Amino acid sequence: MGFLNNLFGKKQTPAFNIEKAVSEYLLRLPQCNKDVVIVSPKYGEKHFICEIVVAAKDLLPWTERHAVTVSSSNKEEQAARQALPLWLRCADSSNKCASYVPHFMFKVLRLYVQNFINEGIARVFCFECQSFVSDLNRKKLMKNS
User: What is each CA distance from 132 to 52, 70, 137, in whole angstroms?
Assistant: First the structure.
């Protein structure tokens, strides 16, 4: 196949190197702190009036399992999935400021937010109350058409 590609002028794209992609991804990230914001209006989630926070040490076991059991065809998302446990392992537990995750890490976590809440590892910070809340009241707003 390489001969035919060379003959017809098609260049072969090198195979995707996940280890290299993960390393490059990690190099671009700031240090992870004690807590990680997994949902925020800052991520474009405008329907949330809160931030959902998980301690890095509590999120780590899930991310380690997730990195080896789930795969994505999106190369950047897969690199983020595999970089996430490495990033969390190096969390600075003395830094009380929460870390915000980059876009592709958010995409990895977004589908599982309800699981983290149900497991009791996520904390919800209400902007209106300016505090963490333990009793959640979810409302679905219906738009009249």
Answer: 9, 31, 13
Asked whether residue 105 is domain-assigned, the answer is: yes
Mean pLDDT (whole number) for 118-122:
94
Look at residue 25 and give its three-state secondary structure: helix
Q: What's the pTM?
A: 0.78
In a domain, 70, yes or no: yes
> Nearest-CA neighbor of 88 among 116, 61, 108, 70?
61
Q: Domain residues for 102?
A: 15-133
pLDDT tens by residue, 22-61: 778 778 889 999 999 999 999 998 888 899 999 999 999 9
Can you tell me the distance from the alpha carbon of 14 to that of 123, in angstroms, rounded to the nearest whole number?
Answer: 43
- Residue 2 falls inside a structural domain: no
CB 40 within 8 A of CB 51: yes
Count of domains in the chain?
A: 1
Nearest 5°: CA angle at 141, between 136 and 142?
150
- Domain assignment present for residue 114? The answer is yes
Say if residues 36 and 113 touch (Cβ distance below 8 Å): no
- Secondary structure of residue 94 in the 3-state scheme: coil
